[in-house]
Amino acid sequence: MLQFPAWKVLLVLAVLAWGVVMSLPNAVNMSGAPDWVPKKAVNLGLDLRGGVYLEMEIRPQDVIGGRLEVFARDVRTALARTDTQDPVAHLAEVNGRTMTIKLTRADASGNFPVADAIARIEKVNGPVEGGLAGGKTFDVARAGPDTIAITVPANSENLMMADALAKTETIVRRRIDPDGVAEISITRSGSNRLILEAPGEPDPQRLKDLLSRDGRMTFNIVDDSASSIAAAQAGVVKPGFRLISGPTTGPLLIRSIPEIVGSDIASASQGNDEANRPQINFRLNSNGARKFFETTRSNTNKRFAIVLDDSIMSAPSINEPIPGGNVRITGDFTIEEAQDLAAIISAGEMPAKVQFLDQRVVSSTLGEDSIRSGYLAAVVGLALVGCFMILAYGAQGVFAVASLAMNIVLIFASLTLLNATLTLPGIAGIILTIGMAVDANVLVFERIREEQRNGRSIWTAVQAGYERALITILDSNITTLFAAGILYALGSGPVKGFAVTLALGIITSVFTAFIFTRMLTVFWMKIAKPKRFAI
User: Buried b vs exposed e over 427-454: b needs ≥16 C-beta within 10 Å?
Assistant: First the structure.
């Protein structure tokens, strides 16, 4: 217990040296340091730096409706197959949580091929993400002599919501932080809510504008005949089409089921056209490029609309088949608008429209006040604890204060390594850790005091003190570590920050109190050769 061979001393010193190096960016500017030295300080949370807090949710009915619209494309493809049978003529319409397929061509006896259509649809009705292999996403059933109803069962809805929330979280991060360098925090709350914290962001409206757009990019065939548009404006819309408009195109009839969707887009970026005006360039993936080529080949001399969130960005004519999958959108954009639109398109389509429930803005001045208050509390707490330990335990109290200082250094080193975010509750966790680290030292020192009273020599008293205090120290710290784990698993935002710093502090405090302090004590005993500790 009191033996410290050279390898153990070197290992302890290496850990402490690592802690000092890793925590240096939090105290000094390390821009000129070697590449292996960290340059970035611990991220500051919203309550310390100021910024924007947004709470948002996605609604189940929107998620289900979106999935049904995507499935409508697969249904159209399935019913149009001509490899073994004639295509099934039909009209598809999504209304809320149900998609209705109405067959439009009967056989010679006046019957509609409902059974055949259901069999074809079931072939493309695979399992939902996260579901069991062989399961079905949708319930497909006859709803009349010429009608099929497609609905979503409860188990599929739960899986859809879990998948949609995960995708929404990813898309929110990509839109707000496309380069991956911002210090945003996104946490889940319940089954359909997300909390976004963007430290340093001064404009909540910009974030809401980026997130409120669905990002639904589609390519739809256009019917631009004047008679069809006039009829649609009068309320008689051509079956299978819908009337929408754009800033430069005016009202156009577009086919309801798109040819290309957002999942077919590989990337998007802001660029410039021949006149050096901002434009949006995007590239289709291999599947999208193939569908785009087939669409342009089979619809030559027609127009197709590039639609973003139900607004027609452009509607060029198809003069010839277009291979390659490279597309651009031109318009009257500013550079910032083109960059934001490119980020929206590149991030992908939202599974459902986000609804904003709560918005808060924390000023940077309030954050600076919080930092000063937390720093003052930590310094005062450490000073008071240090004075008490030195007055109560003499030389060993000095060793305890040294271990407390290294404990804080190791906590900041760990936060820097993990790229964690420090919040005001996190500072509270560090202050709490100071008290817990002192508690471990006090347990050991009181044990040594008891052993000395029982007549033991200084060496045997120290040996017995550390051995008998070990179980108590581990028991108290492990139970607190479990509590920190539960807080992290069930909490969100600041609660997680408190749990992280508390857990790291428990680990580092056991190391510094039980190993570093003991090593200092042993070295001092070998050098000073005291007869008793003045404790």
Answer: bbbbbbbbebbbebbbbbbebbbebbee
